[in-house]
Batch of 4 targets.
Target 1
Amino acid sequence: MDEIAFSAKYKDWISIKKMGKGYSSLAEIFGGIKQGEVREILLSASSEQLLPIAEAYFMRKLITGVGYELETGTEMLSKIYPELKLPKPKGRFGKGKG
């Protein structure tokens, strides 16, 4: 089965994401990187103090660049789980795209 499921719970919110994409492209990317190579490049562009932030930014850009979404919202959850009836936000909103 080629599916990854992510879930997170924060207070009363539960977020679940299923992805049917293959993760072989991520494995290929990480397989082609030499050990310490990313660290050296990031250190040349920043400092030791900023390295954790640079690494997190690099990982986020890499994963989103491959096509994975890291943030789930009510719209995405509604598409994945149409049986869930998520409450709509109160207020006046203009018509969205689509």
Target 2
Amino acid sequence: MFGRFLTTTAGRALGFGAAVAFAAWWSVTLFPERWAVRIPDNRHTYGIRVRGGVDLFFALPVGWVVDYALWIVFVLAIVTVLVEWVVRRRHGFTEAAIGQHDR
């Protein structure tokens, strides 16, 4: 119906990056008890307030992922769509032309 959506190398790389960032965020937020503590210590210094007013403290890189990964996913998704759109306009790709290579 839609043919291939990600037809360029840049689009595929950006889409893959968005998927990896989402997977990292999802794996940490699905099981926060594996990644966080409730009382800060020398290693877990990045505090985030979650549902119910509970403060969880993460290690710095993990806490940064929890805080900013969804923004990164949104930006990468938008840039992926823009890159695909620009390349298709520049090279005159259409859905019909893209689908011919799949046969």
Target 3
Amino acid sequence: MSMIHTIRGKLDSKCWIAEITGTDSANDLARNFLKPISSFRYKLLIDKIYEISAEGDRWFVLCHPTPNGGAATAKLTREQVNAWAKAQDIIRAAARP
């Protein structure tokens, strides 16, 4: 399941959305930058955490299912995202043969 998220921005501004995939020694958080499906519109997947940059602000969201079968986002703190990213690293390490 997914949802379309539109961010407000100007064509000359740095607006982007990146999926947080774990930790990274270079940037603290490992990111997979999404390609927009059209100007400022992105497809977000359920149960994924994203960093959003728009109009000079940056924040984190979790895309989650709603009771009516749709999808929504909830803001997360940097501390919540750091804990989740470290957990993803542990899960990946445990899955390696």
Target 4
Amino acid sequence: MAERNEDNKTTPTATAPKKGDAGEREVKQRVDAENEQGFVGIEVDPTPNSAYTVAGVTAGEPTPETDPGAAKAVGSRRFDAALTGADPARV
């Protein structure tokens, strides 16, 4: 609501919040979360890179592509027999 002063001009009694404030807060929260995480999005494969090297493969380090336990740990359903229709031990 506005009040009239002695010159008969209106002056605002309260300031309205800026329209962009809620959106700016949401964007800032998301950017801050990404900065804290260190990257944008989700981590797709937490398997260490060493597991994909010749030394890692010959040492038998598990990867989601070759080991059902590692696949399950990263959320992969690669070895799920209900989805593939195949024997998980033979995939």
